[in-house]
Amino acid sequence: MKTITILGSTGSIGTQALEVCREHKIKVKALAAHSNVKMLAEQVIEFGAEYACIYDENKLGELEKLLCGRGVDLLTGMEGLKTIAQLDGVDIMLNSVVGMVGLVPTLTAIEHGTDIALANKETLVAGGKLVINAAKEKGVMIYLVDSEHSAIFQSQQGNSMNRVKGIILTASGGPFYGKTTEELRGVTVEQALNHPNWSMGNKITIDSATLMNKGLEFIEAMWLFDLRPEQIEIVVHRESVIHSAVEYEDNSVIAQLGVPDMKIPIQYALLYPNRVHCDVKHLSLTDYGRLTFAKPDYDTFKCLTACIKAVTAGGILPAAVNGANEQAVAAFLAGKISFLAIGELVTEVLENTENKEIHNVDDILAADSAAREYVAKRIEEGQYQ
Ligand SMILES: NC(=O)C1=CN([C@@H]2O[C@H](COP(=O)(O)OP(=O)(O)OC[C@H]3O[C@@H](n4cnc5c(N)ncnc54)[C@H](OP(=O)(O)O)[C@@H]3O)[C@@H](O)[C@H]2O)C=CC1
Ligand SMILES: CC(=O)[C@@H](O)[C@H](O)COP(=O)(O)O
Ligand SMILES: [Mn+2]
Question: What positions does the entry give for NADPH binding (predicted)?
Fold first, then answer.
């Protein structure tokens, strides 16, 4: 029986991962959330976890009350996440927290030699070089949860002798596909959260609407599959049935398909290499009738362009655009800035960040903080309402 830990167990990925654990009898040793103390306590009780971490210290007292007398080790803050990342006897740590906060726990688990199932894409965007190098050095496996990267990985199975020419990274286009900048002026949070195909947490759903998500995934793919920017073609595929594809040297293209349900890649990551029953709908291609493909609109969706420019330049710029985006998305969700301001702020940070090489994790954290401060200041100045 496999034993896992989950950071971000109360979120969209975390709760679906626990469904997989329930169905496939995976032992859950530790769980962590940010502030949803009630759901965390319920999960800890149901799955018999030995450790529980609530990141927000102010909620620790409440967690103590909810888990009183159960012999669960209670943790908080970054130290708590790092403790979970270094537990012995764990086969896989699923990192499904949202945002850059996942970077240090990922590096800690790798250092400890624990395999990782990675949903937390911001970790690779900001710290790809450190994460990949550390994983190689320690011989740690990174199982991929993001649907496109799981699809690329799945499309490579049995092809280790074959040369990859490039990949096709599919994008749904989000709720605002086909809209002009003028039409995007004044769109609401509710409209931006209305993803056509996927049910996900708020931050990634906004990233899908701005196409930042595809920019983050472009960077993620470069690190995971050792690709150059020109080897990645982004294709808008409105139906989200083809989850991405790999093109080989002979121009043969191998893709992974399925209904848009994260249970498939989550289960594949946790049970790899086994394919067993998964509680999702059957894919009926005849019900779809036809599948469509188009080029993305790089002018309107500025975040996508900013990500590609950032990763092409390298250094701290991917961390900077990611930090700017995290700050801007939080402000948009809080009703402080417009939808279009997200792309403008991310671009502004890209253009105003002096690039540097990354030597260690502090370089990444500093670039992230500087970008966030820049965005917060611009919003405070009233530039982006
Ligand atoms: N949802 C999806 O389908 C997909 C998501 N991803 C990626 O997976 C990650 C998670 O996404 P998603 O599940 O949608 O996000 P959600 O917002 O639904 O969930 C985020 C989870 O992270 C927890 N969390 C946030 N900050 C911390 C922290 N500092 N310490 C501990 N826990 C924390 C939250 O706890 P709390 O509930 O207490 O706030 C919650 O459990 C993101 O990086 C996203 O890009 C990738 C592909 C698909
Ligand atoms: C489910 C998943 O992996 C998301 O990252 C998804 O890709 C979002 O869809 P789009 O960014 O393509 O709209
Ligand atoms: Mn994805």
Answer: 10-13, 36, 120, 122, 201
